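Hypothesis: this fold can be encoded by more than one sequence.
Test: take the structure tokens below, design a sequence, compare later.
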């Protein structure tokens, strides 16, 4: 065989083999996992305009821009705080008895320039986690829609991020976190059932009660200004959720495929269940119901996507949709104004997922947990760990949110004055209108 032919065959073999890249310090970069995590990071960020559209379409036309700005402002405020100190407070070493993390090398991400985590550049891991940090306080804005000052909202989400999100994220996802190390395998929360949805949902309920209802609540009609936009927003959230859940495996492999599949099953089941409930009760199936059911199915599978089988995903999606439907109905009976149902869907749905996943865990996962525990580890053992995590999350969210609401109200002001609220956020706070009807 000629030298040229050997060279050609060698080049062809190298081209066909999986690509391996070495970092400056000799660490191996897994290009397949890295590529998937780049895509997942973009998918999670795509959820932000999706959330803005979902929320923006549900409010009155005089508040559409102000409501959407709540989501986009979080991209800037939390995006900056995450780089400055959030990554350090979340994934640093334990301080204050393990309440929060601390690593000076992570401030401004200065210590991760050549870092590799599981074959993935640490910059990508930091940015992926940063998108989770952004969307969490933005979810809470649904409870305060149409009635808060922008300055008060910014102060609230900045402080909430520091005193609720960062500690909770450290407890659950940092290697030294006490919930991460509880039981045989720690609390199960793949993509933020506790860290994101339960914390945001519970805080949303507290904020809604603290602020009080909107002017004319349950007396004046407040129809959504654009359900088409809400439906499109729900679609973007559904697509982005694949990066949200499957990306949280931090790999491109079997667990990734499992998480993506369970996400799809639960979302579809949740949407179908909500439509069936409306069809039985009202004889009509609404677009808003479809969007709400989709979201109910997505939030319930968020903590569980990597550990349950398809039958578990079906069950969780259906149960979450039913529970969230009635939680939304109870809002009107109880009189609190969670304007866009953050608690009714995110808090209730994901809280159920955190608990019920214990009864649908794969046998292989329980086997591994039993090996780690040195005894048979059952679903009830894991249920106790999950309840412990749920209780800790609710306690932190309630106590901190009450304090923050009082602090914001007493300093920069939180609830808009009646005149500006009547005029609408778009004109009174932004000097703009979302729609020109002239």
């Amino acid at each position: 065989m000629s030298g040229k032919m050997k060279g050609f065959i060698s080049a062809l073999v190298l081209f066909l083999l999986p690509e391996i890249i070495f970092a400056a310090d000799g660490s191996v970069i897994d290009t397949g996992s890295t590529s998937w995590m780049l895509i997942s990071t973009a998918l999670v960020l795509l959820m932000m305009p999706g959330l803005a559209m979902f929320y923006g379409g549900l409010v009155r036309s005089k508040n559409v821009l102000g409501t959407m700005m709540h989501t986009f402002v979080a991209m800037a405020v939390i995006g900056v705080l995450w780089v400055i100190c959030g990554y350090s407070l979340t994934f640093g070493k334990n301080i204050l008895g393990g309440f929060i993390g601390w690593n000076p090398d992570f401030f401004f991400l200065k210590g991760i320039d050549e870092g590799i985590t599981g074959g993935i550049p640490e910059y990508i891991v930091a940015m992926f986690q940063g998108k989770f940090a952004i969307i969490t306080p933005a979810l809470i804005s649904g409870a305060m829609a149409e009635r808060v000052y922008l300055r008060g909202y910014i102060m609230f989400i900045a402080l909430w991020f520091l005193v609720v999100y960062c500690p909770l994220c450290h407890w659950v996802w940092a290697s030294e976190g006490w919930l991460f190390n509880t039981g045989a395998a720690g609390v199960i929360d793949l993509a933020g059932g506790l860290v994101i949805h339960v914390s945001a949902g519970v805080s949303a309920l507290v904020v809604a009660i603290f602020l009080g209802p909107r002017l004319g609540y349950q007396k004046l009609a407040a129809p959504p200004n654009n359900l088409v936009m809400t439906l499109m927003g729900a679609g973007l959230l559904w697509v982005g959720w694949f990066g949200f859940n499957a990306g949280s495996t931090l790999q491109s492999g079997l667990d990734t495929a499992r998480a993506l599949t369970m996400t799809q099953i639960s979302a579809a089941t949740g949407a179908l269940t909500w439509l069936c409930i409306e069809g039985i009760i009202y004889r009509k199936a609404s677009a808003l119901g479809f969007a709400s059911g989709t979201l109910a199915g997505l939030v319930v599978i968020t903590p569980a996507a990597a550990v349950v089988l398809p039958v578990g995903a079906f069950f969780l999606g259906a149960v979450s949709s039913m529970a969230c439907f009635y939680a939304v109905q109870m809002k009107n009976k109880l009189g609190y104004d969670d304007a866009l149902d953050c608690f009714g869907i995110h808090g209730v749905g994901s809280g159920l997922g955190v608990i019920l996943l214990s009864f649908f865990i794969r046998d292989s996962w329980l086997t591994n947990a039993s090996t780690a525990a040195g005894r048979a580890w059952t679903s009830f053992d894991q249920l106790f760990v999950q309840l412990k995590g749920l209780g800790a999350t609710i306690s932190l969210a309630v106590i901190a949110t009450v304090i923050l609401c009082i602090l914001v109200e007493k300093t920069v002001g939180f609830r808009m004055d009646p005149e500006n609220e009547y005029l609408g956020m778009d004109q009174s706070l932004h000097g703009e209108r979302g729609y020109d009807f002239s």
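Confidence is low (pLDDT under 50) at residues 12-17. The radius of gyration is 23 Å.
Hypothesis status: open.
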